[in-house]
Amino acid sequence: MVERVWPALVDLVVPLQCGGCARPGTRWCRTCAREIADAPIEVRTRVALPVPAYALGRYSGVRRQAILELKERGRSDLSVPLGRAVATALLALDRWSELPAAERLLLIPAPTRRMSARRRGGDPVTAIAGSAARVLGGRVEVTPLLVTSMWARDSAHLSAGERGDNLTGAIRIRRSVRSRFSAVYGLDAAVVLLDDVLTTGATVAESVSVLANAGVEVHLVLVIAAA
Ligand SMILES: [Zn+2]
User: How much of the chain exceeds pLDDT 70, in percent?
Assistant: First the structure.
């Protein structure tokens, strides 16, 4: 009884609709699931990156809608289908030999400003990485090494140029993981930097360079959507 009543109550509070196309009666429809599972595309960014960057697709349609629902409207459940799509993309990239053959795969979420992550109820990129790791199994590890300094403004409303300036020197290795950081060294691992939206490439370029300075070589950048 309780099991039957509870989902009905949840539906009353949060109208049940697809996070990709707003179709009623489902949280994530088959059409959106199919669309987001397309083969990843290689992306060129305005800021040159030292590693290849791939996206599940362009920042439009189902991808744009799902990211907005997840980040701005509290649809944290969408990290599950997005994580599944990321897992599918990683398997394709592995088949295409875009990832080095290695014992493990490290997924490093791109940094979020801590305050904004807290306000939005947890970092969505880390949640997406977590569900991708659950799909792919024990070989995959989510390692949130990066954080954006407190003084960097939330980049959501900045222009591309402002974003670059805003980031310089603002991304660093998270202090709380520094002690456990040595575990990353010497691992036979393919390292993927994961982000939600790729715009100019400034965030990922800075992230890759901060990680390189700390001795972690990123092999590939993967994002949900390229603007
Ligand atoms: Zn849909």
Answer: 75
